[in-house]
Amino acid sequence: MLIIQVLMLGVLMTMTALAVDVGSFYSRAAEVQKASDAAALAAVVWMPDDFTTATSAARDAAGRNGFTHGTNGITVVVSTVAGNPRQVRATITDPSVPTIFGRMITNSISITRDSVAEYVLAVPLGSPNSTFGNQSVGASAPNFWAAVNGYSTGKSQGDPFATRCGAASTTCSGINPDYRPSGYLYGVEVPAGSAGRSLTVEIFDSIFVNRGLGTETSDAIMGGSVMLPLQYELYEADATPLDNADNPTLSGRCSTGPGRLIFDTSNTSGEISTYKNQWTTLCTFNVTRTGVYPLRVKSSGISGQPDQGNATAQYSVRSSLSGGGAQPRVYGLGDMSIFTGNTGTSAFYLAEVPAMHAGKTFEVELFDPGDGSSGTYKLSIVKPDGSVAACRYTNSSGTFGASGTCTITTRNSSSGSVYDGKWLTIRVDLGATYTCGTDCWWKVSYDFGGGTPTDRTTWRANILGDPVHLVE
């Protein structure tokens, strides 16, 4: 009996020792997993163009979490994910996790954990082509122009970001909390395989010339007589596509064009004849890196120029690559400010939403949509297959209604604009089976009901959720 008790005690002690070790292993494995998560998230923002920096960032993050590559046999390995250049895998191995009581079996065990992170770029806005906006003042359709308002223009005039005035433009009282001097960004996306070709970026009607809403590009002073300055500047593509604030400028580095084009408030007759209703080369250069070249357009915060101007300026952008073949795309980044004056019904490109976003929520925000002098205006959110989506949207008080067909009245013939100086927020649930083939562009279809629209508005669209996240 005593022998049996001794044997049982030995078994119990062994089981207890193993239980302690297993708990220790689970704890260590959780630490390894946490470190690999951090490593993957740190690395992915450098993909796919700078794998060396991605590896360094991953190892730095792992080291901060207690797992230094090359110390005590620990390895931190970064690898690409086949078929997805915006994903990266980080694998951490700790080969010598010591046992506490189980040394009769082994002195240590190896623990390996890995994580996969990805980043999702902002959805392209406004154009799938190498042009953004009308290409001449003689083209009646789609009468769609890129736009920016002046510093002293009221926010309710359709631009919530470039204007510092929080109230009506005639008084400029109050401060617009959403004002930003950085203006608007466009992406000039140069396709893979284009290195060695010459890229040209041009601006149409780059100078501000007052002519009134509905005439040519619809440049117009909204009150007073003060002109607004303008600046157009192109930046290099770089290895951090999620951060457009660190791209080096191309100012002074173009073979043709200045790279940074500034207009003061004098607008001499010589300047007007050179730039009004004309295409101007902002920059031509030889491509050494493919990717997205940011183009920034702004009306304040311009070196040597006063912050002023109760006005709206319209323009267009186009880009081209030499030698034929694939051409660049030009689209809005994050948001886009536009003007349209088409009567009847018009459809405008809104955003490109690829099938990778299936199961997520697509959010569209339109600021001050549906301006005009008469008529009832409606807009619809149209899917790539041409059908009207189902959505939920906010009323004039900012409250979401029930889901239904996404056709929204933005102006009543009797009471005027429904969303005057307000955001209209629209949410579309993309089902788990969402797909779009080769054309993933959603559109906004406007029905101006035979009225006379002067719709100066700002749009933004995004996929809800963290753009940098773990997928494994």
Automatic annotation (TrEMBL):
InterPro entries in the cross-refs: Tad_N
One Pfam family recorded for the sequence: Tad
Domain Putative Flp pilus-assembly TadG-like N-terminal: 6-44
Organism for this UniProt entry: freshwater metagenome
Name the record gives this protein: Unannotated protein
